[in-house]
């Protein structure tokens, strides 16, 4: 048994209290063995955490990690125009090698900002999976299906790919990779494909993940065509099960909030993307009051434009207050819970809490920074003041992915170089 101890830190516990303690990790099991005092003696290796906050690794509940290649490629447009005029034409040129290069860049960014698990919808998923395996992160991956604008054969092929990928990769990378069936959204996938393939996803035992109620323009066609709110339509198509999770949930009415709460379906709130694309303000406080499981996600780096979950936490608190017109709405504790346990629960992972027996997924935040001084309340600092650059160490599944700000599993300089070349070649092909 190989043991790792994280020593001398302030540890954020599941009840959001903070205590001075060591964390002892069984690296073979990838689990936290004990949280207590003087545990360094039991360890083969230590990570120093003095003057630092030891927190559960952040869980990014909705991402398109390879879209780092399109960061800054098209900004300042609303969702539909952005996708149709810029993003989809560029993505049409992406090769598997491009996606691998973009995914590696995104994974470096995730590790450096303390994220240890994420859910990802994209194309060329086998290449994303290889990158995740080498990076050492935990991920729920899926192939995103779009059937609009395709003939029947191509549409079925896309849905079949999503199902096959979900079946084949579930449990990959020693269990660090899990999967989901991923229709892109309720307006971009025809109901006949949902009717045919969702029961197969259930049979395969994988959840379903999709964009829902992101913009007003996405709600209106479903109401017009089917006479139903989008999430009523989703429930009727078997897409609102406890293991399922939707991205965005901006334009949800009270009846849909009740549906989500009753179904146990998670919502991944993506505040930065919603602000940048001017999609709207999700009623996060209302969803939390109703008992909906709410997590946080960055969405892709082309609509954010980074993958820092600490930025997302701050944005969620700020936007939540604005949306509720109430400064006490979406307080620091709620945000930290969404950043960790909420996202993990929504996407069906056990991580997001530091306690004996839990997965050893954690981040260590350097508190010796002017913007984290004084230390009245470390939960407040995590929600409002900490930044990606404050992350010192990142550990996932008991393995050290970053030590003293040096990423150990990927060659950061090489990854950046490949991403620069790949993005330049992509731009040249699209023009
Ligand atoms: C079919 S793979 C995933 C697909 O989703 C696109 N995408 C990125 N951000 C968003 C968003 O905010 N709403 C809807 N779709 C989005 C991405 O570019 C891929 O094409
Ligand atoms: Zn998205």
UniProtKB/TrEMBL annotation:
It catalyses: S-methyl-5'-thioadenosine + H2O + H(+) = S-methyl-5'-thioinosine + NH4(+); S-adenosyl-L-homocysteine + H2O + H(+) = S-inosyl-L-homocysteine + NH4(+). CDD domains: ATZ_TRZ_like. Signal peptide: none annotated. Binds 1 zinc ion per subunit. Its EC number is 3.5.4.28, 3.5.4.31. Substrate binds at residues 91, 184, 214, 299. Gene3D superfamilies: Metal-dependent hydrolases, Urease, subunit C, domain 1. InterPro entries: Amidohydro-rel (IPR006680), Deaminase_MtaD/DadD (IPR023512), Metal-dep_hydrolase_composite (IPR011059), Metal_Hydrolase (IPR032466), MTA/SAH_deaminase (IPR050287). The keyword Glycoprotein does not apply. GO terms for molecular function: 5'-methylthioadenosine deaminase activity; metal ion binding; S-adenosylhomocysteine deaminase activity. It holds the Pfam family Amidohydro_1. Keywords: Hydrolase, Metal-binding, Zinc. Its cofactor is Zn(2+). It comes from the Archaea. Zn(2+) binds at residues 62, 64, 211, 299. Residues 53-400 form the Amidohydrolase-related domain. Belongs to the metallo-dependent hydrolases superfamily. MTA/SAH deaminase family. Catalyzes the deamination of 5-methylthioadenosine and S-adenosyl-L-homocysteine into 5-methylthioinosine and S-inosyl-L-homocysteine, respectively. Is also able to deaminate adenosine. This is 5-methylthioadenosine/S-adenosylhomocysteine deaminase. It comes from Natrinema salaciae.
């Amino acid at each position: 048994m190989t043991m790792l101890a994280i020593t001398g830190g302030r540890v954020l516990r599941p009840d959001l209290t903070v205590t001075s303690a060591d964390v002892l990790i069984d690296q073979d099991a990838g689990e936290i063995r004990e949280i207590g005092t003087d545990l360094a003696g039991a360890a083969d290796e230590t990570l120093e955490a003095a003057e630092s906050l030891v927190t559960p690794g952040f869980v990014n509940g909705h991402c398109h990690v390879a879209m780092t290649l399109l960061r800054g490629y098209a900004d300042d447009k609303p969702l539909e125009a952005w996708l149709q005029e810029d993003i989809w034409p560029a993505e049409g040129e992406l090769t598997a090698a491009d996606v691998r290069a973009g995914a590696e860049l995104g994974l470096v960014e995730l590790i450096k900002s303390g994220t240890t698990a994420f859910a990802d919808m994209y194309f060329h998923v086998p290449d994303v999976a290889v990158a995740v395996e080498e990076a050492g992160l935990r991920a729920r991956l899926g192939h995103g299906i779009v059937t609009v604008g395709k003939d029947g054969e191509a549409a079925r092929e896309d849905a079949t790919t999503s199902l096959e990928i979900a079946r084949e990769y579930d449990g990959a990378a020693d269990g660090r990779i899990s999967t989901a069936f991923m229709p892109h959204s309720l307006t971009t996938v025809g109901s006949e494909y949902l009717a045919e393939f969702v029961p197969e996803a259930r049979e395969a035992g994988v959840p379903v993940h999709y964009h829902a109620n992101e913009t007003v323009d996405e709600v209106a066609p479903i109401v017009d065509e089917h006479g139903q709110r989008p999430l009523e339509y989703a429930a009727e198509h078997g897409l609102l099960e406890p293991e399922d999770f939707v991205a965005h949930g901006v334009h949800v009415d009270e009846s849909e909030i009740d549906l989500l709460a009753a179904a146990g379906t998670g919502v991944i709130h993506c505040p930065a993307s919603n602000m940048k694309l001017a999609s709207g303000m999700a009623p996060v406080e209302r969803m939390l009051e109703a008992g909906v499981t709410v997590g946080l996600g960055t969405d892709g780096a082309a609509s954010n434009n980074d993958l820092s979950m600490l930025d997302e936490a701050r944005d969620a608190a700020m936007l939540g207050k604005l949306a509720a017109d109430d400064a006490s709405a979406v307080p620091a504790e709620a945000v930290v819970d969404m950043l960790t346990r909420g996202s993990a629960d929504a996407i069906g992972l056990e991580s997001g809490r530091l306690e004996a027996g839990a997965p050893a997924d954690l981040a260590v935040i350097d508190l010796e920074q002017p913007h984290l001084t004084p230390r009245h309340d470390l939960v407040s600092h995590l929600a409002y003041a900490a930044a990606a650059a404050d992350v010192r160490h990142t550990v996932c599944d008991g393995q050290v992915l970053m030590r003293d700000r040096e990423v150990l599993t990927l060659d950061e300089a090489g990854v950046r170089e490949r991403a620069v070349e790949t993005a330049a070649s992509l731009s040249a092909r699209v023009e």
